[in-house]
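Technical annex B. To support the medicinal chemistry partners, we prepared a structural model of the target in complex with manganese (II) ion, based solely on the information shown next.
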Amino acid sequence: MLTTADQNYIKAIYRLQLGNEAVSTSALAAALGVTPASVSGMLRKLSRSNVLIHQRYKGVRLTARGRLAALQVIRRHRLIELFLVEILGLPWDSVHKEAERLEHVVSDEILERMDVLLGHPAVDPHGAPIPSHNGRIASHAGVRLAELDAGARGTVSEVADHDPDLLRYLSDIRLTPGAEVAVIDRLPFDGTVVITVSGRQQHVSAGVASAVWIETT
Amino acid sequence: MLTTADQNYIKAIYRLQLGNEAVSTSALAAALGVTPASVSGMLRKLSRSNVLIHQRYKGVRLTARGRLAALQVIRRHRLIELFLVEILGLPWDSVHKEAERLEHVVSDEILERMDVLLGHPAVDPHGAPIPSHNGRIASHAGVRLAELDAGARGTVSEVADHDPDLLRYLSDIRLTPGAEVAVIDRLPFDGTVVITVSGRQQHVSAGVASAVWIETT
DNA sequence: AAGAAAAGTTAGGATTGCCTAATTTAGATT
DNA sequence: AATCTAAATTAGGCAATCCTAACTTTTCTT
Ligand SMILES: [Mn+2]
Ligand SMILES: [Mn+2]
Ligand SMILES: [Mn+2]
Ligand SMILES: [Mn+2]
């Protein structure tokens, strides 16, 4: 059985591996908030349970089993987030942290009930796709707002979910999944993007703009 | 901070301590499914954090702090059970085990939302009172069905929540909290109780009858 | 290509919570 | 009061997961 720590490591590797290159020990350590030494130890242990392949000094990759395990944890995480927002009415900026704990303890039966109650939803509160039971996941359609040029328009498909402050700010300026956005201009010197969202014109910093994905229309 | 193990120990001591005598190491070990040696170790640790007082070879008692902590965990447990039954629609015989894990990881914010959504309920799905925030709890009104004599009548106030098989059986025969019961007879030789519940006459064994509490009318 | 810097691993240790086996204490029996 | 038994405790270990410090390997710079 995979422990909570195992699941967190596997999930972090999955996220860092998008693009499919091997994940470095230090990147993992940074993502998990532990020391590189701890990561080395855990990787040795996890490779024994065949969820990943670790090449000493070269990095780590999930196996098919590891990838499935990661997607199942992500499914739990995202369903729980949506449940907390939709059914319990928690603010969307706080549910990520909650789901980070609950994803390891909610039973399959409870998760199934949540899924049914939510009507088999396709995306979480931040617009991220919810993987299916067997690890199928919709591919990420969308470009970072930071990469769009003046004249582009589209719909917000997803926003980064980690930072509560950022999420509250995005709520404030209506830059949430589903919102219609038009890019008016991009300032060349610092990447600030000038946009129109729900009728209003806004300036968003390059940092914020790279935390928002747009599906162009 | 109290760990999951700490909380389970404290809760078990609270339950065994009803009546207020000190709880023995072996009783605790049996309740928690660990060895007496493990209990001795944990008691030493817990007494350092002032939730209980352990007199070597004499037994253990919760302090006021420990009692409050126990009641807060019990509050979580019971609210979660009710939430799982009422909102998620899980069967009442399965929620105890789920709550046993979730009680340690659900945040105060989530718990508060559950409480509101459920309308500040007074009892859990098995009829057990839900302690308040600050550790106030309704006293247990009711006598075991096993102790009633022919002619007695009343309402089921609570049933034992641990055994799923027993709970399914009680559901089957309608002997659930709120049900009206009349005692027709009690067989002297083995304690079997003959009752009427929702129009039907039933024989229940002494074991079952001692798992059901009745508030007599 | 040599040396320095960065990245990664190993060694050794802490903590938590459990175990078994050995020992000690309390309480009951004679 | 001595002895036996049952209960409880201590001693010594193990697995998981983290840490710091020391060492090794890879990569970058010159
Ligand atoms: Mn999230
Ligand atoms: Mn997590
Ligand atoms: Mn229960
Ligand atoms: Mn528990």
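Notes passed to the chemistry partners:
The radius of gyration of chain B is 19 Å.
The mean pLDDT of chain B is 96.
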